[in-house]
Amino acid sequence: MIEHVLADILRDVAGLARRVGRLETPEVTTAALLPAVLPSANLLTNPGLEIWQRGSGGFTATNAYTADRWQILLGGTSTVTVTREGTTIDGASLYAAKAVYVQGSANSQIDQLIEDFTQLRGKTLTLSVRVRQGVASNVRPYISDSGAKTYGTASATTGSYVTLMVSLAIGAAATSVRVGIDLGASDTVYLDNAILTIGSLTPTYRPLHPADDLARCQRYFEVQGGVTNSDIDYQGYTSAAQELRFARSCVPKAVVPTITRVGTWSLTNVAGQPTVDVPGTNSYRLRFTSSGAGLAEVNTVDTTTYISIEANP
To answer: How far is residue 111's CA from residue 164's CA, in Å, rounded to a whole number?
Structure first.
């Protein structure tokens, strides 16, 4: 509906402008003007790198996730330490990713796997990302179609944020799509405010609402517990050596997740730490066994005790 309304308005404006001589050519069309005013969907998860559910780093291992959904891919003997950055940021951003990189025998990447690649087959994608580098032309953006990378142009600018961009027509038989930056020289690099859209251009970066931003991230990774006061607390009155079972829900995941109890929980009349099992895309089970008759209770106690739920397709 909004597209039709805007189309009518732009058609009227274009016609009036031609009549009063404000436009030099009558060939300006509504179709040409619409992309400038209509918002474009950002296909990335955590595009502003604001969500860091795994902590602020440093993250060093290949395949490790840093800011939610952004992954390290090390090449050869290269090394990197990625941390959350709150000072050297792009504009009014809250956080950026800081990568202290040492080039070894091959280039490395920080990138994101796009889950719903099948609906992108046959379409042109454009990635833009704000990058600050200390070594000229060190960083290149890329889009990977089924493992084959297409690179954008590097920048000679150092010491300030620049926009790097790349476009690619995704193949009709694509089996995966990844997007990110390629690192080619030892350097300290900052990454912020990325956009992935369908089309040959990207719009001005617009931050997601915090609720939407977190919801996207929790489709792949979620932490329950992990706060100073008890956040997860289960109890029941039983006789000795009885197992208590409790179903818990989670944000619906992309695939059946891996669920892990982390840390040493507080126990009352319980024989051993609780366990988690029966994972589903939106639920799991927590269970423990009483050591004697009476009240049996387990609960988280601080930031080191929680349940992690991870589902990276």
So the answer is: 14
